[in-house]
């Protein structure tokens, strides 16, 4: 008989210690160290296997093939659709539209692919039915249950025998074998582990809805994200109809995809071409605006940067931005003032994006610089122009990845001219490009756009 050794393990990160401590020595989390009894390494004997090892070429691919759900943008984020036995964790802020999206997914799945079970622990069955009536989510093979007990959920799975399960949410379900509070670390881990085991054993695609903390991370034990196959973040501004499903982890496809949706009172719809939402319409050129192309996952999206520069009545001028990375905006302003000789010291500067877009990658630096310089000089940039490039502290304009793909998207949307860094590679034939090496050459375009892009 192997001698048992008393150890204590952190349920968040797996760190172990020989004595109990209140704070994990690895992840610094409080109250996550629990007692665990494990056998010493020399005491493990061979045991039965689930299936004999086979040559890799003899392993079938069919169980790993995805099946479309019917929601195009959700399938895009998943890498093609749902895989048999896959477990997906979808996290997002309250009220962002997670339940509306998953109700639409389960309804389409029930109409085309097989039985679906929607388990809600946050609402009553009648409330979910009302939402389904409003969004057109009624299907004969869509089964609905309002439960907060894990054993009852397992009973529903045995009775319905679904091919898709949605649990909304994992923090509201409790295991009767544990005395911990609902939503606690141990409860969430136990519920998730049980459902993952059932999903893998029976080949049921399972979607778990997760809460997020105030800093935007997924609530509960960190090990939960390691156990599931796919982690999705559902993002969106309450004041905008645009919603994005961003892939963080995906064992069956790319881990950098983004799906775009339009959320309204009548439901949620996929947006195959959301670029127009991030651009404003101007009848004539307006100072303080510049368009750039950002890449969300593998999809290029046009975004507009707007800037306003005004004399400040305060001892400390105000700097405010919306939709941009504050640290990068501050850096661009410092470079513009130091390298470009643009006086911004006693000016209030406001920068923003259009349509609730988030432009945080370095490729938007040049657009921010041109928008601020244009606003400060009161000189409008040419209509139909975009700007791509990362601004360095020495004032140089650096190359960015995917320039050809970005320019192709700009050309498709009707833009005719572009400012790009030097040596950016081949460009589409339908768009004129001007290579700018540094801040000075970029500001020359703002000062005299006619000479930079002559007509004809």
TrEMBL record:
<dbReference type="Pfam" id="PF13481">
    <property type="entry name" value="AAA_25"/>
</dbReference>
<comment type="function">
    <text>Plays a role in repairing double-strand DNA breaks, probably involving stabilizing or processing branched DNA or blocked replication forks.</text>
</comment>
<dbReference type="InterPro" id="IPR020588">
    <property type="entry name" value="RecA_ATP-bd"/>
</dbReference>
<dbReference type="GO" id="GO:0000725">
    <property type="term" value="P:recombinational repair"/>
</dbReference>
<dbReference type="GO" id="GO:0005829">
    <property type="term" value="C:cytosol"/>
</dbReference>
<dbReference type="GO" id="GO:0016787">
    <property type="term" value="F:hydrolase activity"/>
</dbReference>
<dbReference type="GO" id="GO:0005524">
    <property type="term" value="F:ATP binding"/>
</dbReference>
<comment type="function">
    <text>DNA-dependent ATPase involved in processing of recombination intermediates, plays a role in repairing DNA breaks. Stimulates the branch migration of RecA-mediated strand transfer reactions, allowing the 3' invading strand to extend heteroduplex DNA faster. Binds ssDNA in the presence of ADP but not other nucleotides, has ATPase activity that is stimulated by ssDNA and various branched DNA structures, but inhibited by SSB. Does not have RecA's homology-searching function.</text>
</comment>
<dbReference type="InterPro" id="IPR027417">
    <property type="entry name" value="P-loop_NTPase"/>
</dbReference>
<keyword id="KW-0863">Zinc-finger</keyword>
<feature type="short sequence motif" description="RadA KNRFG motif">
    <location>
        <begin position="249"/>
        <end position="253"/>
    </location>
</feature>
<keyword id="KW-0346">Stress response</keyword>
<dbReference type="InterPro" id="IPR004504">
    <property type="entry name" value="DNA_repair_RadA"/>
</dbReference>
<feature type="domain" description="RecA family profile 1">
    <location>
        <begin position="63"/>
        <end position="212"/>
    </location>
</feature>
<keyword id="KW-0479">Metal-binding</keyword>
<comment type="similarity">
    <text>Belongs to the RecA family. RadA subfamily.</text>
</comment>
<dbReference type="InterPro" id="IPR041166">
    <property type="entry name" value="Rubredoxin_2"/>
</dbReference>
<keyword id="KW-0862">Zinc</keyword>
<keyword id="KW-0067">ATP-binding</keyword>
<feature type="region of interest" description="Lon-protease-like">
    <location>
        <begin position="348"/>
        <end position="456"/>
    </location>
</feature>
<keyword id="KW-0547">Nucleotide-binding</keyword>
<keyword id="KW-0378">Hydrolase</keyword>
<dbReference type="InterPro" id="IPR003593">
    <property type="entry name" value="AAA+_ATPase"/>
</dbReference>
<dbReference type="InterPro" id="IPR020568">
    <property type="entry name" value="Ribosomal_Su5_D2-typ_SF"/>
</dbReference>
<dbReference type="GO" id="GO:0003684">
    <property type="term" value="F:damaged DNA binding"/>
</dbReference>
<keyword id="KW-0234">DNA repair</keyword>
<keyword id="KW-0227">DNA damage</keyword>
<dbReference type="GO" id="GO:0140664">
    <property type="term" value="F:ATP-dependent DNA damage sensor activity"/>
</dbReference>
<feature type="binding site">
    <location>
        <begin position="92"/>
        <end position="99"/>
    </location>
    <ligand>
        <name>ATP</name>
    </ligand>
</feature>
<keyword id="KW-0238">DNA-binding</keyword>
<dbReference type="Pfam" id="PF18073">
    <property type="entry name" value="Zn_ribbon_LapB"/>
</dbReference>
<dbReference type="GO" id="GO:0008270">
    <property type="term" value="F:zinc ion binding"/>
</dbReference>
<dbReference type="InterPro" id="IPR014721">
    <property type="entry name" value="Ribsml_uS5_D2-typ_fold_subgr"/>
</dbReference>
<protein>
    <recommendedName>
        <fullName>DNA repair protein RadA</fullName>
    </recommendedName>
</protein>
